[in-house]
What we know:
Blueprint: E1 3-10, H1 13-26, E2 36-43, E3 61-68, H2 77-96, E4 101-103, E5 107-110, E6 113-124, E7 131-141, H3 168-190, H4 194-206, E8 214-218, E9 227-234, E10 240-244, E11 249-252, E12 256-258
Parallel strand pairs: 1-2
Antiparallel strand pairs: 2-3, 3-7, 4-5, 5-6, 6-7, 8-9, 8-12, 9-10, 10-11
Amino acid sequence: MLNYIRLKKIDSSNTYALSLLNEAAKNGEVRSLEKNVIVVEEQSAGRGRINRNFFSPPKTGLYCTAIYAPPFPIENSAKLTIFAALAVCRALQKLFGIPALIKWVNDIYVDGKKVCGILAEGHVDSRSQKVDAAVIGIGINILAKNFPEEIQKKAGAIFQDESQIPEINSLKEKLLSEVCENLYALYDSAFENSAAYGKALSEYKSRSFLIGRRVKVFPLVGDENSFFAEVLDIDDEARLVVCTEDGNVLRLESGEVSTEFF
């Protein structure tokens, strides 16, 4: 059963969840936080990948962080993210009939705009130096409202105005429940069952809009090491398989890709 910890306004739900894990680790109780979900109305310093900010105003989005603390070390953080992306896509499909797509590895797109970002971060056991738990932050734009100018062209939302929905708080609760139930069901099944994992990965790939497209790859922050490539596949370890312009096939475990370039 999931336990929801509800907060009005904090800096970041991921930061708060990691602080809970740090406290629990002092008494060897990290596992006790399994299936706890931090839900916040507003974030003053919401975080995305590569140290980006995530716009998190009140009354327009769902912002939550799920704690995953399994009885085994977490060895592949990319899998945490792909399951979370899949959980969101399934929820949007079921509740609103929206066929959302995924931009590897963590962004959810609807009608060509990003409506959801995901940030998975690990908690390291100080003795074993292995990742013994993780926090999975999920931010979903429900209403397109007051986006800063710098993200207006890229950011989207499930609904364009409040007249399209009866009551946003009720909708947020349904979305929260559906996403989190999906997420933990995937974690419980796909991490230890190869058939379930294969099925989930196949569904993830079917929702990808990168496969077969030419992209610009940023292995590190900044443009100095970027290169163009064609996306061939997503492999069994959730790595993006690309072919560079000189014919080299690479398997990307991290980094950023863009379909927007000149």
